[in-house]
Design goal:
The complex is a heterodimer of chains A (355) and B (116).
Chain A (H helix, E strand, L loop, with lengths): L3 E2 L5 E2 L10 E6 L4 E8 L2 E4 L2 E3 L10 H23 L8 E7 L3 H17 L4 E5 H13 L5 E5 L4 E7 L2 E7 L5 H11 L8 H9 L12 E2 L2 E2 L2 H16 L5 H27 L3 E5 L6 H14 L2 E4 L2 H4 L3 H13 L27
Parallel strand pairs in A: 3-7, 7-8, 9-14, 14-15
Antiparallel strand pairs in A: 1-2, 3-4, 4-5, 4-6, 9-10, 10-11, 12-13
Chain B lengths: L6 H14 L4 E8 L3 H12 L10 E7 L2 E8 L2 H25 L15
Antiparallel strand pairs in B: 1-3, 2-3
The chains are: A alpha/beta (355), B alpha+beta (116).
């Protein structure tokens, strides 16, 4: 057959029939991060990202977030292509976040995805944001079939894979744990740079006095609105009277929230007979959460997997990875199906790429 | 509708009448591109998302030669402004994308609805 030269200029011998390498570009912008990642057969070639940071005390709203993404997405796209050192022709498919998330930012990014798919004549793959987190976590950590704790500003779910679906075993019945943390950071007027959760984590390290807070686990599910209103009502007074410092409150909140998450994760593990835990999503960066989960895992003889902030926090490469798996399994979609949606259940997606 | 209209129904009836033919506020846009293919690309990117649930605005798209023609109809000026503003942001974004990452390559296959 002679030697074959692949696109990357590598030489292969007569007896090796190389599969063509598959390159996917993924665009993510469902919350306040706009990220574009490029993956080639499980290797991250580029993963630039920009974050829309609001002033202390303020959350981010859809309209302003969309404007941020619109203003930055094309620069991030140029950056991704340059870092990966690939041309559009080498890309096999465009993956983008279909949902869940905020509508205006999702649409802004989807418009760019659809446009480049047409300009470059490439198929388009619509990805579920939560599945992006899960598949990136599996890729980076090598976890085989873990119980997944997916925790972020927008989502809190305990997930296990079963028969072609990522089943939601437990979830929040009101707000996401990250949302609870973000809103508490606003009460304390902590900086949102790089993220409110990060600043709570740093502050919590200096906390010494534990304040007992409402602990709310309901079977397999968790609830956070009670603990948040409890703090909203009392924080000012507790701080003014000097009974507790900001650090004490951050520490107490983390301990309570994370204990709830560890309990529900453990329940799912026991139910599924699982010996692996994967934490993903922005709140998964939190080292105290990883520590507490690690203690529970050790007690059960289970293994804990977690990634660092480049993959825990929303990023484009995770969308590219999920897109890669879907694309290789034969899933692309016709254009009229590429609309975005604020609500998109993790267990609505047929996981065609796993046994 | 002949039945008695209650408070909450009244508003709904009003809007239905607007959308079905009584004068609505309308904006008509014509945006030129380098080719009809580019105009089609922008149209395809923008017409996929349905209107937001609480929106009563309606957009119709048409490509005439290298012009992207869009008509936006809304029950009143306030809603028209909202619809037009967000639409302008997106059409500007799509146009910039075409400028920076185009021109469109030769298509190897038709991008029809029943393929892929």
């Amino acid at each position: 057959m002679g030697t074959q030269v692949t696109q990357r200029g590598m030489m292969h011998g007569d007896d090796v029939q190389q599969d063509k390498m598959v390159v996917i570009i993924g665009l993510e912008g469902s919350a306040n991060k706009i990220g574009i990642g490029i993956i080639e057969d499980g290797r991250v070639l580029a993963n630039p990202r920009r974050t829309y940071v609001t002033p202390p005390g303020q959350g981010f709203i859809p309209h302003d977030t969309a404007k941020h993404h619109q203003a930055n997405v094309l620069e991030v796209l140029h950056k991704a292509l340059a870092e990966a050192d690939i041309s559009p022709q080498q890309i096999d498919a465009i993956a983008y976040t279909k949902g869940p998330g905020m509508a205006a930012p999702l649409i802004s990014v989807a418009v760019v995805a659809r446009t480049i798919a047409q300009l470059w004549d490439k198929p388009i793959v619509a990805v579920n944001h939560c599945i992006g987190h899960i598949e990136m976590g599996r890729l980076i950590t090598g976890a085989e079939n873990p119980t997944v704790l997916y925790v972020s500003g927008g989502n809190t779910q305990i997930i296990a894979y079963l028969e072609k679906k990522y089943r939601i075993f437990g979830e929040t019945i009101d707000m996401a744990v990250g949302n609870c943390l973000d809103r508490f950071a606003r009460i304390l007027m902590l900086s949102n740079d790089p993220s409110p959760g990060y600043n709570i984590e740093q502050m919590a390290k200096k906390g010494k006095k534990y304040l007992s807070l409402p602990y709310c686990v309901k079977g397999m599910d968790v609830s956070f609105s009670g603990i948040l209103s409890y703090l909203e009502e009392r924080a000012d007074k507790l701080l003014k009277t000097g009974q507790y410092t900001k650090a004490d409150l951050c520490f107490s909140l983390q301990e309570t929230l994370f204990a709830m998450l560890v309990e529900t994760t453990e329940r799912a593990m026991a139910h599924c007979g699982s010996q692996e835990v994967l934490i993903c999503g922005g709140v998964g960066c939190n080292l105290r959460l990883q520590e507490m989960m690690g203690i529970m895992c050790k007690e059960r003889g289970a293994k804990l997997y977690a990634t660092d902030e480049s993959f825990c926090i929303d990023n484009g490469a995770m969308i590219a990875q999920a897109g890669y798996l879907m694309f290789k399994a034969g899933t692309t979609m016709p254009f009229q199906d590429t609309w975005v949606t604020q609500r998109y259940r993790t267990d609505d997606v047929p996981v065609t790429w796993r046994e | 509708m002949d039945e008695v209209i209650m408070d909450s129904d009244e508003e709904i009836v009003q809007l239905e009448e607007n959308v079905s033919g009584l004068p609505a506020a309308v904006v008509k846009l014509e945006i030129p591109y380098n080719s009809s293919r580019e105009a089609e690309i922008v149209r395809n990117s923008l017409q996929v998302d349905p209107e937001p649930k609480r929106s009563q605005s309606l957009k119709t798209f048409n490509v005439r030669e290298n012009l992207l023609c869009v008509e936006i109809r809304s029950p009143d000026v306030r809603q028209l402004r909202t619809a037009v503003n967000s639409f302008m942001d997106l059409v500007h974004l799509a146009t910039k994308t075409v400028d920076q990452f185009g021109p469109p390559v030769q298509r190897t296959k038709k991008m029809t609805s029943d393929q892929q």
